[in-house]
Amino acid sequence: QPMLTQPPSVSGAPGQRVSVSCSGSSSNIGTHTVSWYQQVPGTAPRLLIFSNSQRASGVPDRFSGSKSGTSASLAIGGLQSEDEADFYCATWDGSLNEWVFGGGTKLTVL
Amino acid sequence: QVQLQESGPGLVRPLQTLSLTCSVSGGSVISGNFYWNWIRLPAGKGLEWIGRIHSTGTTNYNPSVKGRLTISLDMSGNRLSLKLTSVTAADTAVYFCARDFSGWYFDYWGQGALVTVSS
């Protein structure tokens, strides 16, 4: 069972905005920064957001991240068909002394 | 530009040892405040972090594989390796190596290696 909770799926029409939530606890999200990854099946995950809200190099500003307390969120605006992928949040858990991931959220662009 | 490339057998028999190597180019595995990780993706499931090694040799392992997993650095070959003993079908997955910057985020990933455990 993943330590971070994400919705299994989200969907939106082209041009719309969607968000993906990531819920954790005081020992992980509450204490450490969150990063987000996009994974197209058959390819390596790609870093999108680090340190809660910083976009990685080359990531369009349609992607944004935020964190509040023990939860984080990834927002994707101006949806495009090429955004279809699985999205994962991740952070370090200071009590478990290990990296923890969310279960992943599949984005479908309608 | 740092690049990582996994290699190893695609098929392992149950109860045998799974061995993978991750070759690193564009950076040294023994310099900087970096950790070198193994992360796996079982079919139909999410990413699972299984362990990491710091450039100084310190390791952390996921309890789900602790006792079976060894991660090491080959400084002369600039690569890291994974050895997972007594494998079962539950260890079937795509295995990725990835660099994490000071425990903050994974900035570079390999393309992944599919390992199937089957007789």
Can you tell me about this structure?
The complex is a heterodimer of chains A (110) and B (119). By secondary structure, chain A is mostly beta strands. Chain A is built from no helices and ten strands. Chain A has strands at residues 9-12, 18-23, 35-39, 46-50, 54-55, 63-68, 71-76, 85-93, 98-101, 105-109. Chain B is mainly β. Chain B is 0% helix and 53% strand. Chain B has strands at residues 3-7, 11-12, 18-25, 34-41, 48-54, 59-61, 69-74, 79-84, 93-101, 106-109, 113-117. In chain B, the strands form two sheets. In chain B, strands 2, 4, 5, 6, 9, 10 and 11 form a seven-stranded mixed sheet that branches. In chain B, strands 1-3-8-7 form a four-stranded antiparallel sheet, with no helix packed on it. The relative contact order of chain B is 0.32. Classes of the chains: A mainly beta (110), B mainly beta (119).
Largest sheet of chain B: 7 strands, mixed
Mean pLDDT across all amino acids of chain A: 96
C-alpha end-to-end distance of chain A: 29 Å
The amount of helix of chain B comes to under 10%
Annotation, overall tally of beta strands of chain A: 10
Helix-residue proportion of chain A: under 10%
Largest sheet of chain A: 7 strands, mixed
Unreliable sequence segments of chain A: none
**What is the number of helical segments of chain B per DSSP (H or I, 4+ residues)?**
0
Order of helices and strands of chain B: EEEEEEEEEEE
Q: What is the alpha-carbon Rg of chain A in Å?
A: 13 Å
The number of strands of chain B is 11
- What best-fitting shape of chain B do the alpha-carbon axes yield? globular
N→C terminal distance of chain B:
39 Å
- Beta-strand portion of chain A reads over 45%
The backbone outline of chain A, from C-alpha atoms, is globular
Oligomer: heterodimer
What's the total helix number of chain A? Answer: 0
Unreliable spans of chain B: none
SSE-based structural type of chain B: mainly beta
- Strand content range of chain B: over 45%
